[in-house]
Amino acid sequence: MIDGVYFTDLDLMADGTSEAGEDMGSGALSVVPGAQSPQSPAPRPSKKRRKKRGWIKWVVIAGILAAVGGRIYYTSKNITQNLYQTDTAALRDIRTFHSFTGTVAPITSRDVTSTVNGVKISEVLVKEGDDVKEGDLLMVLDTSSLDEQILERQASIDAASYSSSLSVQSALNSYNNLKNNLDAGMETSVMNAKNQMDSAYANLVSAQQAFNDEVALNNDQMSSTILNAKQSVDSAYDALQSRILATTQARERKAKNEKDAADSGMPYDPFSDDQAIETAVMSEQQAWNSYNQAQQKFEQAKINEENNLTKLFDQVQQAQNSYLSSIDSYNAAVNASQQQLRTYEMQVQQARAQANDSVNRLQLEDLKSNLDDYAVYAPISGEVITLKAHEGDVLSATSGALATIVDFDRMKIDIKIGEYDILGASEGEPVTITIDALNKDYPGQIVRIARIATVENGVSYYEAEVDFDTDDDIRSGMSAEVRLTVNDLSNVVTVLSEAIQTADDGTAYVLVDGEEPNSKINWPVTLGASDGTYTQITNGLSAGESVYYTSTPSFIPGGGR
Prior knowledge:
Blueprint lengths: L5 E3 L21 E3 L14 H37 L1 E4 L1 E23 L8 E4 L6 E2 L4 E5 L2 H15 L5 H21 L3 H32 L4 H41 L6 H84 L1 H14 L5 E3 L4 E6 L15 E16 L11 E6 L4 E10 L4 E3 L2 E11 L9 E18 L4 E2 L5 E6 L6 E11 L3 E6 L6 E4 L12
Antiparallel strand pairs: 1-2, 3-20, 4-10, 4-15, 5-7, 6-9, 7-8, 9-10, 10-14, 11-12, 11-15, 12-14, 13-14, 15-19, 16-17, 17-18, 18-19
Helix pairs in contact: 2-7, 3-6, 4-6, 5-6
């Protein structure tokens, strides 16, 4: 039974034929509507009715089969359609980046200190929170004690003896003479050493040129020895080919003479032909020997040429060693002259030390130069964030920092770049800095990446520094996210990353409609960048094309479109 219709054989005539006279056979079927049992007898219709039902039953059977087939087709189609989800390739922007975290900190922070101890602070010209420029005067120290030392030293100089200056002048003359000779290139030992160095360099250049010329000849096979040997090989080869041809011709002559004798019925004496062949073979063997000897001489010529190159190379090495040795000798001569110059300089200093006025003058200049230390200047531009000095304080070796200045105009963030992200990062690369506490972004730049990795718990990373310009909202110690753009693609063809599958050979493909209804085929694609949700298709799809995917990838047989 199919959909409430039974098949029965009760419509056959007793002789096995239909009412129309057609032989249906004992297995012919008829159709009876309703749910009547196949075993229930049906009343035999009249002759006219049976004749009409003869074609109706086949129409009904065909309709039933069509209905069953259609139901199966649409059921299969719905199952296939429900198995897949659909995505459409579209033009999208792909932006990916590496993200790092860190803390905002000043790039430049300097403590203000003084090299002077034991004096009072006369005046403080700034207060905490003031903005200062590099070189601004911050504090003034009491110079009364230094002023007194300067006056005493000036009086000692005025009382010095003139005779002490003679020894100073003598030492200065020795120093100046040697220095002038050195500056003019006229110092004897240095000149001799330089001449030897120039000569050694000329020898090195000559040896190198000879080696290079021989290499060029060798590369171009221009060496006369090699050329002669090669010509001998060519001549021997030509002679060998001639002898081989003569042997072949002798054998062909014998074969012809033997055939001609046989054709004419005349007796054939092979003695003369055999003797000619034997002579030709011996000549061919001699030609082979000559060719092999020429070939050996050619190979030996090449070996000799290589040996000659080795000899010339050794000469280059020797010349280079001599040149390097001459450089050492020259440097030694220069160092010896410089040492002698320092000796004369020391003698000048000793002569000045022995002359009270000279020593006093040097000490006086030192004292006057110390006046600069009694004024404390800003070492950098920035904001005075701490001020520990006050007027009247006496400075000591333990006073420490008098103030601290921080430049808040440009700040930094120290980040850690993982070893697998380092290829996407380089010094000078722009980054985007997000301060969550301010909900603001700032442009920045990577200014330093460590060359040596730091390893912690088996994980390697590279310490890096990001600098950026700030505003009044930025505070040191704020948490920040640093984003380094890896891909920034606009209007590229993309599909859902979930729709991409990987074949056994590692290539990527997507499912697309096949030529048969409801069929799907694997369509190879080339992948580009991916932001996790969408993946760029660089080859294989165009915008607007549909792809199919399932939560669990399945194999769909098929080839290309």
